[in-house]
């Protein structure tokens, strides 16, 4: 745990087992775990290779139950008279299995779904068919077709609320409800004056993109009264930004929202839903602080604060307690997905081969001694715990002198290579010596002696972890095996895109967020890393940088300590991603065929070579976009 802090961020769903592998406990820490490495090895044997995204439906269901339990508990404790429901915003992860699973569990728990666009609405209407009781909240910009779909769904018997974000949308809802002669309930999203916190703090406040000013809410109420439709106003909504890390922000926003609710309720008898939006955080770093990737409260504390504040505002004026609705998407789905990647290789000074150097290697073209090289050779021989500081000074100076001697043409390429190897070898040995010293000299402990190696991993950051690139989001990374061995390497991770931004340089450890990951030396066999808590937003936002497509994805069901594969979704092929970019794979293959024929005619390729090349090309088009094992 000192290296990876699994017990801090794992929320009971992940632990390290006796065999040094990561265990997954979908029903929480006291439930039996299954071996994540065993699952990934099992998939590999079936030809489903890394990178692979594993989705644990059990974790998803457990998260939803925990949310239900937190609010039920808070309501019971405080004698709250209203109800609680959550609606899952499908934009957080629109993947079919996830949405279907949330909808299925939602039927048991009284939860619904939230949509923010017409295509999302069309999806959710189909997924919830046959379940009229499941609430659908419609946010986002709406045109007439969107509202027509809502009106007709209402006729079908669905419990669906369009949330108007502008007076124009209000007029559309009024007009279309009349046209279809249907009673469409209306929600209103408002801008609060309080400020949010964290990365998405602009989602709230007077300059936020969405919602009506309070004065516009009053205008909505006046217009509805004039139309004789004030009874349609049923829901009041506000979303204060995703990943609210600080509970104080939650408290002040809910307090303001409740106040708007009780006053509006005095004029709108049918106003009964108070939708507090999303924003319930996920503690990605396990630090339990208000830093960007963490949060300083629990789900239970969140529920108690929300219930208490809404209840208290209503009680102060004798208003009925509303049904509280939460749109917390991240907190529902983040834990359920784990991305497993394999490490392909490493680069860095630690990888340079050791050299044996003699004094002769330090002679220049004229047979004269090149002092910097001689000094480096000497430094290597003299290094002990006692001489560490002096050797450090000498070798730093000698290496710099060797580099400038090369620039001036005094030493050869081979001698520069020798200097480089000697320098990194001595530095590595110095690092080892320092790590065993009780009190290393001040200067040495300040110097970052061990430059991290880069481990190349078979995945695309832009496809699978876009938030790392876009907003420096931190996700916990843990080797899923060999955890019974001391991880002696300090590494950063790089993906296989040709983009230097495709790197991870922030990691979760027992000492908080660190710039290096503790990892094991590579031994020429598979070395697999799990990247955790990736279920929210990553899949929905990922892109096709370098044409790396979606990874393999597997749905895993766990019961009584054993696992089974419920579904496998093969990752995208080159052909598919080329199609998105409007290439026709057949036309590409034809162009290559014709070029081969030309080369054959010119005597450059024989028929066998031509066939091999064409087979390679066509197989390439129809296979996984990631690197495949031999
Ligand atoms: N509701 C609305 C209107 C949103 O814009 C968002 C996302 O930003 C959410 C809900 C979900 O937020 P979160 O996933 O942080 O709970």
TrEMBL record:
<feature type="domain" description="Arginine decarboxylase C-terminal helical">
    <location>
        <begin position="575"/>
        <end position="627"/>
    </location>
</feature>
<feature type="domain" description="Arginine decarboxylase helical bundle">
    <location>
        <begin position="371"/>
        <end position="446"/>
    </location>
</feature>
<keyword id="KW-0663">Pyridoxal phosphate</keyword>
<dbReference type="Pfam" id="PF17810">
    <property type="entry name" value="Arg_decarb_HB"/>
</dbReference>
<keyword id="KW-0620">Polyamine biosynthesis</keyword>
<keyword id="KW-0456">Lyase</keyword>
<dbReference type="Pfam" id="PF17944">
    <property type="entry name" value="Arg_decarbox_C"/>
</dbReference>
<comment type="function">
    <text>Catalyzes the biosynthesis of agmatine from arginine.</text>
</comment>
<dbReference type="GO" id="GO:0008295">
    <property type="term" value="P:spermidine biosynthetic process"/>
</dbReference>
<dbReference type="InterPro" id="IPR022644">
    <property type="entry name" value="De-COase2_N"/>
</dbReference>
<dbReference type="InterPro" id="IPR041128">
    <property type="entry name" value="Arg_decarbox_C"/>
</dbReference>
<keyword id="KW-0745">Spermidine biosynthesis</keyword>
<dbReference type="InterPro" id="IPR000183">
    <property type="entry name" value="Orn/DAP/Arg_de-COase"/>
</dbReference>
<keyword id="KW-0210">Decarboxylase</keyword>
<feature type="modified residue" description="N6-(pyridoxal phosphate)lysine">
    <location>
        <position position="91"/>
    </location>
</feature>
<comment type="pathway">
    <text>Amine and polyamine biosynthesis; agmatine biosynthesis; agmatine from L-arginine: step 1/1.</text>
</comment>
<dbReference type="GO" id="GO:0046872">
    <property type="term" value="F:metal ion binding"/>
</dbReference>
<dbReference type="InterPro" id="IPR002985">
    <property type="entry name" value="Arg_decrbxlase"/>
</dbReference>
<dbReference type="InterPro" id="IPR040634">
    <property type="entry name" value="Arg_decarb_HB"/>
</dbReference>
<dbReference type="InterPro" id="IPR009006">
    <property type="entry name" value="Ala_racemase/Decarboxylase_C"/>
</dbReference>
<dbReference type="GO" id="GO:0006527">
    <property type="term" value="P:L-arginine catabolic process"/>
</dbReference>
<dbReference type="InterPro" id="IPR022653">
    <property type="entry name" value="De-COase2_pyr-phos_BS"/>
</dbReference>
<keyword id="KW-0479">Metal-binding</keyword>
<dbReference type="InterPro" id="IPR029066">
    <property type="entry name" value="PLP-binding_barrel"/>
</dbReference>
<comment type="similarity">
    <text>Belongs to the Orn/Lys/Arg decarboxylase class-II family. SpeA subfamily.</text>
</comment>
<dbReference type="GO" id="GO:0008792">
    <property type="term" value="F:arginine decarboxylase activity"/>
</dbReference>
<keyword id="KW-0460">Magnesium</keyword>
<dbReference type="InterPro" id="IPR022657">
    <property type="entry name" value="De-COase2_CS"/>
</dbReference>
<feature type="active site" description="Proton donor">
    <location>
        <position position="498"/>
    </location>
</feature>
<feature type="domain" description="Orn/DAP/Arg decarboxylase 2 N-terminal">
    <location>
        <begin position="83"/>
        <end position="334"/>
    </location>
</feature>
<protein>
    <recommendedName>
        <fullName>Arginine decarboxylase</fullName>
        <ecNumber>4.1.1.19</ecNumber>
    </recommendedName>
</protein>
<dbReference type="Pfam" id="PF02784">
    <property type="entry name" value="Orn_Arg_deC_N"/>
</dbReference>
């Amino acid at each position: 745990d000192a290296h990876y802090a699994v017990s801090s961020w794992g929320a009971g769903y992940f632990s390290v087992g006796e065999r040094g592998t990561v265990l997954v406990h979908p029903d929480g820490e006291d439930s039996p775990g299954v071996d994540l490495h065993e699952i990934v090895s099992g998939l590999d044997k079936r030809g489903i290779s890394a990178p692979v995204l594993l989705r644990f439906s059990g974790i998803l269901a457990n998260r939803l139950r925990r949310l239900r339990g937190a609010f039920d508990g808070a309501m019971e404790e405080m004698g709250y008279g209203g109800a609680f429901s959550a609606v899952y915003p499908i934009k957080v992860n629109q993947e079919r299995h996830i949405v279907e699973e949330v909808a299925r569990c939602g039927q048991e728990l009284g939860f619904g779904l939230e949509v923010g666009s017409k295509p999302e609405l069309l999806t959710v209407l189909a997924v919830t068919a046959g379940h009229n009781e499941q609430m659908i909240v419609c946010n986002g910009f709406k045109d007439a077709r969107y509202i027509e779909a809502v009106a007709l769904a209402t006729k079908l018997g669905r419990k669906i609320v369009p949330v108007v974000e502008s007076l124009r949308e209000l007029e559309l809802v009024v007009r279309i409800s009349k046209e279809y002669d249907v009673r469409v309930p209306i929600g209103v999203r408002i801008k609060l004056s309080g400020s949010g916190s964290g990365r998405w703090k602009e989602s709230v406040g007077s300059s936020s993109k969405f919602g009506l000013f309070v004065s516009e809410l009053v205008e909505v109420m006046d217009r509805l009264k004039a139309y004789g439709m004030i009874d349609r106003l049923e829901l009041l909504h506000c979303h204060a930004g995703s990943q609210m890390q600080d509970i104080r922000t939650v408290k002040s926003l809910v307090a303001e929202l409740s106040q708007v609710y009780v006053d509006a309720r005095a004029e709108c008898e049918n106003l009964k839903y108070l939708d507090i939006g999303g924003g319930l955080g996920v503690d990605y770093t396990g630090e339990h602080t208000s830093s960007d990737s963490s949060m300083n409260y629990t789900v239970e504390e969140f529920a108690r604060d929300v219930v208490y504040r809404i209840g208290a505002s209503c009680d102060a004026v004798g208003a009925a307690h509303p049904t509280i609705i939460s749109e917390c998407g991240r907190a529902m789905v983040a834990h359920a997905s784990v991305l497993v990647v394999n490490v392909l290789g490493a680069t860095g000074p630690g990888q340079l081969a050791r050299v044996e150097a003699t004094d002769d290697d330090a002679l220049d073209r004229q047979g004269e001694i090149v002092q910097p090289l001689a000094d480096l050779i000497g430094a290597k021989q003299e290094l002990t715990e006692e001489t560490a500081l002096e050797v450090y000074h000498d070798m730093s100076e000698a290496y710099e002198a060797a580099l400038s001697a090369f620039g001036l043409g005094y030493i050869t390429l081979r001698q520069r290579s020798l200097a480089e190897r000697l320098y990194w070898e001595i530095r590595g040995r110095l690092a080892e010596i320092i790590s065993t010293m009780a009190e290393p000299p001040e200067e040495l402990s300040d110097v970052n002696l061990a430059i991290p190696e880069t481990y190349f991993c078979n995945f695309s950051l832009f496809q699978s972890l876009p938030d790392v690139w876009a907003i420096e989001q931190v996700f916990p990374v843990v080797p899923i095996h060999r955890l019974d061995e001391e991880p002696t390497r300090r590494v950063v991770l790089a993906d296989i895109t040709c983009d230097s931004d495709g790197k991870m340089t922030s990691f979760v450890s027992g000492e908080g967020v660190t710039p290096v990951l503790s990892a094991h030396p590579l031994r020429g066999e598979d070395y697999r890393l799990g990247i955790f808590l990736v279920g929210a937003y990553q899949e929905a936002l990922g892109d096709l940088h370098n044409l790396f497509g979606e990874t393999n994805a597997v749905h895993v069901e766990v019961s009584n300590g054993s696992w089974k594969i419920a579904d496998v979704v093969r990752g995208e092929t080159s052909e598919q991603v080329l199609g998105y970019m409007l290439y026709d794979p057949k036309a590409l293959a034809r162009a290559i065929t014709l070029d081969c024929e030309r080369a054959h005619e010119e005597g450059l390729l024989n028929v066998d070579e031509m066939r091999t090349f064409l087979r390679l090309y066509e197989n390439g088009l129809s296979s996984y976009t990631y690197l495949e094992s031999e």
